[in-house]
Write a structure and sequence with these properties.
The complex is a heterodimer of chains A (195) and B (124). Chain A has helices spanning 27-34, 97-101, 120-129, 148-154, 171-188, 190-194; strands at residues 2-3, 13-21, 40-48, 63-76, 80-86, 104-111, 133-138, 163-166. Chain A is of the alpha/beta class. Chain A has a single domain (13-188), classed as Rossmann fold, CATH 3.40.50.300. In chain B, helix 4 (70-77) packs across helix 5. Classes of the chains: A alpha/beta (195), B mainly alpha (124). Chains A and B meet through strand 1, strand 2, strand 3, strand 4 and strand 5 of A and helix 4, helix 5, strand 3 and helix 6 of B. Strand 1 (2-3) of chain A pairs antiparallel with strand 3 of chain B, so a sheet runs across the interface. Chain A: It comes from Microbispora cellulosiformans.
Chain lengths: 195, 124
């Protein structure tokens, strides 16, 4: 849909992908490795509607918070443009993801085996929301090496959730992760599940 | 001298904080109108003589000669995304830019899209 004063205007379709995971796990590094532009930073004011949801008084507190996100762009021919957003790393910002996740094709959860628990909130969130995601284990030097099955078990991932090793600094590796994500999202699309 | 005035109050008017909201004249209602990845493109250049267009509006019109997302415009102009949405709303209403909303989640199902994106990523 082009909402404008010229319906004949040819514009690409924008697609949003999220790169999530704990603080310092390499989200911006991965964005930078695959993006065709130097990662940019934008500030977004987001609404926290979730405060007090469990409160029986029914009073819903509404607060806003400003978060900075790094993002990059990959043009796919003339027709599509992918935007990769690194989600804010601090766990206390989990509530912002809803606005970020809306309309997203899928998400990459970056994991660091030295601090595996840091990615639990991301995994929980995307599972609950039904957003297709893959887990990419960023191979830091000196990090303990686990079998992917072990990591999968530790994260209690569903059988169908792809998990792969990556090097967030390498373009080729980031590409593989994104391809795995798009493939997975394709298999998970509602029309596919209905058949 | 105004006896109500206190020097402390002035500190609240921190220029970098206030300025974006002055540009948007305090409006925030456009927040829900455009997504971070809504793409904007200029369809009519400004002459510089338009009434009610600020330098920031003009800058957006210049930037969007090629389609850019709200997030990109915000980053290039160093403005919060919320302010860019308001300014973009003004420009849209006055016919300077066209804005393409991203696909709603339900529509992100097009098989051709997945294939094109996969092929595109493989070819990177």
């Amino acid at each position: 849909m082009v909402s404008g004063h010229s319906d004949t205007l040819k514009m690409p379709k924008a697609i949003k992908l999220l790169i999530a995971g704990g603080f310092g796990v390499g989200k911006t590094t991965m964005v930078g490795a695959v993006s065709e532009i130097r990662p940019l930073r934008t500030e977004e004011t987001l609404t926290n509607l979730s405060v007090g949801v469990d409160d029986l008084s029914g009073v819903e507190a509404k607060a806003t918070t400003t978060v900075a996100m790094d993002f990059g762009r990959i043009s796919i021919g003339q027709d599509f443009v992918l935007y990769l957003f690194g989600t804010p790393g601090q766990e206390r910002f989990w509530f912002v993801w809803d606005e970020l996740a809306r309309g997203a094709l899928g998400a990459v959860v970056l994991a660091d085996t030295r601090r595996l628990a840091d990615c639990f909130p991301s995994v929980d969130y995307f599972e609950r929301r039904g957003t297709p995601f893959v887990v990419a284990v960023n191979c830091f030097e000196g990090a303990p090496v686990f079998e992917l099955d072990e990591v999968k078990l530790a994260l209690n991932l569903g059988q169908d959730v792809p998990i792969l090793l990556c090097d967030a600094r390498r373009r080729e590796s980031g590409k593989e992760v994104l391809i795995a994500l798009v493939k997975h999202a394709y298999g998970r699309r509602p029309t596919a599940a209905a058949h | 001298m105004n006896p109500e005035w206190s020097p402390d109050e002035e500190r609240l008017l921190d220029a970098p904080t206030i300025r974006p909201y002055v540009i948007a004249r305090g409006r925030t209602e456009a927040q829900d109108r455009f997504d971070l990845i809504s793409l904007a493109v200029t369809i009519r250049p400004t002459t510089g003589a338009e009434i009610g267009l600020d330098p920031e509006h003009q800058a957006i019109v210049r930037l969007c000669r090629r389609a850019l997302s709200v997030a990109e415009i915000a980053a290039h102009l160093d403005l919060p995304a919320g302010i860019v949405r308001v300014l973009l709303g003004d420009l849209f209403d006055r016919g300077f830019v066209a804005v393409q909303q991203p696909q709603p989640e339900m529509d992100v199902l097009d098989e051709r899209m997945y294939k094109a994106v996969l092929d595109g990523l493989r070819a990177l």
